[in-house]
Amino acid sequence: MGLMDWLWEQHQFLMHQCFSLPFAFLFCLLAKRGYLSLTHRYLFVSVGGCILAGVTMGIYSMLLFTSTFVFILLVCYVDPRCIHAWVFGVQMLWQTFWHLLIQYREYYLREPVSIRLFLAASSLMLLTQRITSVSMDLQEKRVMLPLNASSKREACVMLLPLISYILNFTTLLGGPLCSYSRFVSLMAEISLNPLPNPLSVVFLKLIQVLLLEWVRHGLSYFLKHNTYDPSKSIILYGVLWVWGLAVVLRIQYYSHWKISECLNNAAGFGFWENSSGDSSAWSGLSDGDFWTIEASTRMSEFARRWNATTASWLRRLVYIRCKHFPLFMTFSFSLWWHGLHLGHFVGMMTWAATVKADYHIHRHLCPKHPSTWRKIYTCLSWINTQMIVACIVTAVELRNMSGLRLLSITYIGLFPLFNIILLFLKRNTVY
Fold this sequence. Notes:
Elements: H1 2-10, H2 12-32, H3 38-57, H4 62-77, H5 83-108, H6 115-139, H7 152-167, H8 180-189, H9 199-225, H10 235-266, H11 290-294, H12 299-305, H13 308-319, H14 326-338, H15 342-365, H16 372-398, H17 401-409, H18 414-430
Helix pairs in contact: 2-3, 2-10, 3-7, 4-5, 4-6, 5-6, 9-10, 10-16, 13-14, 14-15, 15-16, 15-18, 16-17
């Protein structure tokens, strides 16, 4: 009983996803054997999402249901040519209201905020991704919804795939994001194309989650019992301590992405048809891999690989559509989307500036031909990337002044500052 209490207290998100796994396996089994028609499949995942929201978020699940209801109304009554502007505006205002309410209760009233509200706000952010993805598809005519039904029953059947996409229980709490058209094709093909049994793949990925959490717990224990004291510790220890803290914070993301990947695989989603049948064949829906992301030697590489489906969404939603300062506009919107905390502002602006610096610095300093110097440069570039990422993650995750004070007393904040100074020096040299 003590172990279960500890697991629930320390790993609520992972436990919610693990409890959903049997229902995902059940859905896959029934769909593959033909016991669920296409309509029943949509009902299964949407009702499952509603139940999961109610169990995990309680009354705050109304945040998601309200967004879904308003979105369906907009889809039915707004012209597709301007649907995205309406959906984007209404959804972001709704999400921002709750983010600001959380800040008001945290910082002004000094009240503890319910974990259910935090979970609902996090799920609302993911719901914003799915809703705006569909609205862009509608505006760009990538998706056509037949809304001229002759009866209410036909209209409900036509809107059911859309509701299922928004409230799908496999992506409700943790993603990853896939397009609406891909979701529809996955739901239709699950009974037509025989898929290999995902049980072994899901088990392997669960083992990876356990290993990640074991490493995170061990590193957290070390950091707690070996805290950094500016008056007694050398500067290098402070830099490495913050780097270790950032690794702990990032591992939490990797665990969440991997368990969400497990849930989608268990339901039969994410299989590459042209793959050979190994575990990589089930990586079609993934937000990132630990080794691939951590091996990034440039900030621009890290930005593309970190939370890959969200990065693609931001690129489509903001970067491609902005004619002026697309990089900074993208990170500014990411700041808005994440909740407008002080740490978010410092972290996102630092990330944007260092990615911009990376483009200029790498072009001028990287050796052109393979050599020993190029290997040395790659190694130093990896260290530089790790230190900048440590600053960004610490600022974003701690959210308030405590994170910024930690970066200042350990001097690790000099790494991004040095990159930004080099950016201005290079730009001045060019001009």
